Task: inverse folding
């Protein structure tokens, strides 16, 4: 990520509903930079989300992981580390669940910022909690979502 | 141009606003660093009680990205 | 049929200048066709045909007139092992006005046949002979960077060489694989070769004097090198199959104020599009953020599509294989053809030539082509019954694409 882009991302976050104490850009001068964000759901549960910026962000879709709690489990206690279409997950890494956010066909690096990814992950987390309550897959909830 | 039937890709902005409206005053979360060096998310009250280091961004004061 | 021997004029001149009386060369025969290509030094491109021994000898005027005796004598002096196969013997004579003359013989045991000699001319003459619509002399100094040498980039490279472009930088880290062959300009004899080398050879076969730099690198990991190449080139042809590299090229075109052409086939090559990025115009990111843009590139390789995330990880191998829908080479050809026309347009700006009128017409930054009324072109009008002149197949449409005022890549 160039410095110009970094400034844009910071600017967007600064003007968003995400508060500065919730996030931090980590290891930015290394080959493995990432954004760590604390997200709270409607149930007031707290999660840490890691958005990996190492692979040509914003030109490649960044990998997004839930790093805390680790690992996230399904309602029945099963692993979510495998790719699943219905749960909107990709292959997890280091015991962290990887969330599917923007797909290849929707990715537009000049319009989508980290803020929008955070919002998508927030939606994913809300749906995940719905799954914990009901056992239904995320896909079923997202299909009914108004977007 | 309407040549292809495709949604705009910035539909998330509206969702963000919708979600922001559900944020009541009691909702707050903070990024802290745990004893094992792993990042954790907790409410400010929990963070105060735990004594863990708060690591959230203070915009404009730290040169995180020098390039 | 009389045999024909092809000689390189510059080789003969160099041999004469060296002052040697005799030396060995290399000859290659198109078996059964009596056509021989003879080299005094190994050519840049691996020669085609079956190799055979060859010997050059400088002769005086008398020797030139009875060159058949000279050739017979040369043949007799050869070691017996060299005489097991036919040998090409070339007698060279330089006239007082420095004009090189030569007579060539194919000698096989007792049989000796004189061949007609033809010359592959020097650089200056090669260009003179190819003078046509374009002032090739002008394009000789132009440098084109081509990123991605698959079924798009490779034929475009060769067409530009044929039009007289003299300098190329080729970038691709892939090798020629079996699944490429049906659509690539390279054949089975080049399996396993780096595409940059194979395409370099294809260029040199059309223009032996082209200067070609090759880089078998992943540009996403060599961004400084990419920037250098774009800065040095007059035009960048973007023919990669991967988004990150296109965006990386786009960012540098914008930064350096350079012109680039982005071409691709979509899904199963049912169509394709071309974007011109120029200073002040819309950039590639303006296009991909625009609803007009269809993100579904042609998928030609499961492994690669998985790496790029085009095929998500949760899609089974069986389903992934079904997603690979390779288009026909003939469906990609129109896109390449238009890319070449637009490239020549850009390169010949300011040069009076036979295609200048196109500059006044090909003024769009974005062009769309449909081969068939499939997928996203399903609602286009049929070709044969279209009284209201709706969008239809097999013709180009120029699109007035606006710059995205909010674009994070190119806004000021």
Result:
């Amino acid at each position: 990520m160039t410095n110009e882009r970094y400034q844009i991302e910071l600017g967007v976050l600064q003007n968003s509903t995400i508060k500065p104490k919730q996030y931090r850009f980590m290891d930015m001068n290394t080959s493995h930079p990432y954004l760590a964000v604390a997200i709270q759901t409607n149930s007031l549960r707290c999660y840490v989300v890691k958005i990996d910026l190492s692979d040509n962000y914003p030109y490649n879709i960044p990998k997004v992981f839930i790093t805390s709690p680790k690992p996230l489990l399904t309602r029945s206690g099963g692993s979510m580390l495998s790719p699943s279409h219905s749960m909107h997950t990709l292959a997890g890494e280091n015991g962290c669940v990887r969330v599917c956010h923007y797909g290849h066909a929707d990715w537009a690096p000049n319009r989508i910022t980290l803020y929008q990814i955070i919002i998508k992950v927030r939606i994913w987390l809300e749906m995940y909690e719905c799954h914990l309550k009901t056992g239904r897959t995320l896909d079923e909830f997202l299909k009914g979502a108004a977007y | 141009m309407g040549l292809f039937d495709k949604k705009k890709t910035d539909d998330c902005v509206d969702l963000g606003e919708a979600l922001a409206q559900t944020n009541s005053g009691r909702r707050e979360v903070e990024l802290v660093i745990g004893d094992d060096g792993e990042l954790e998310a907790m409410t400010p009250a929990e963070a105060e009680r735990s004594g863990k280091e708060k690591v959230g961004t203070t915009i404009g004061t730290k040169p995180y990205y020098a390039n | 049929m009389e045999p024909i021997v092809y000689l390189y004029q510059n080789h003969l001149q160099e041999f004469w200048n060296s002052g040697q009386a005799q030396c060995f060369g290399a000859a290659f025969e198109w078996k059964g066709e009596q056509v021989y290509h003879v080299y005094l030094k190994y050519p840049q491109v691996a020669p085609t045909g079956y190799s055979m021994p060859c010997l050059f000898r400088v002769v005086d005027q008398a020797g030139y007139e009875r060159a058949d005796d000279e050739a017979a004598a040369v043949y007799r002096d050869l070691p017996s092992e060299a005489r097991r196969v036919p040998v090409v013997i070339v007698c060279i004579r330089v006239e007082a006005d420095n004009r090189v003359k030569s007579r060539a013989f194919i000698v096989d045991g007792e049989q000796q046949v004189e061949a007609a000699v033809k010359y592959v001319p020097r650089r200056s003459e090669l260009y003179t002979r190819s003078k046509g619509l374009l002032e090739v002399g002008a394009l000789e100094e132009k440098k084109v960077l081509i990123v991605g040498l698959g079924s798009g980039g490779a034929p475009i490279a060769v067409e530009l060489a044929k039009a007289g472009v003299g300098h190329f930088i080729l970038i691709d880290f892939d090798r020629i694989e079996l699944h490429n062959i049906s659509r690539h300009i390279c054949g089975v004899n080049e399996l396993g070769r780096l595409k940059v080398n194979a395409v370099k050879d294809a260029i040199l076969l059309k223009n032996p004097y082209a200067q070609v730099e090759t880089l078998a690198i992943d540009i996403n990991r060599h961004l400084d090198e990419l920037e250098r190449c774009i800065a040095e080139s007059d035009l960048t042809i973007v023919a990669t199959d991967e988004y990150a590299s296109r965006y990386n090229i786009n960012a540098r075109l914008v930064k350096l104020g350079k012109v680039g052409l982005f071409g691709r086939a979509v899904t199963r090559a049912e169509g394709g599009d071309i974007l011109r990025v120029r200073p002040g115009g819309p950039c590639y990111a303006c296009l991909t953020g625009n609803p007009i843009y269809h993100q579904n590139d042609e998928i030609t390789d499961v492994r690669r599509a998985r790496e790029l995330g085009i095929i998500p990880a949760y899609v089974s191998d069986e389903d992934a294989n079904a997603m690979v829908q390779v288009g026909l080479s003939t469906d990609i050809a129109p896109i390449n053809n238009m890319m070449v026309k637009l490239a020549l347009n850009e390169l010949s700006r300011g040069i009076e030539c036979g295609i200048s009128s196109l500059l006044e017409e090909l003024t769009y930054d974005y062009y769309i082509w449909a081969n068939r009324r499939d997928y996203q072109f399903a609602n286009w009008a049929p070709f044969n019954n279209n009284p209201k002149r709706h969008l239809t197949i097999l013709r180009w449409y120029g699109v007035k694409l606006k710059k995205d005022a909010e674009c994070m890549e190119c806004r000021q």
Observations:
- Chain C has two domains: 4-120, 133-399.
- Residues 133-399 of chain C form a domain with the Rossmann fold fold (CATH 3.40.50.720).
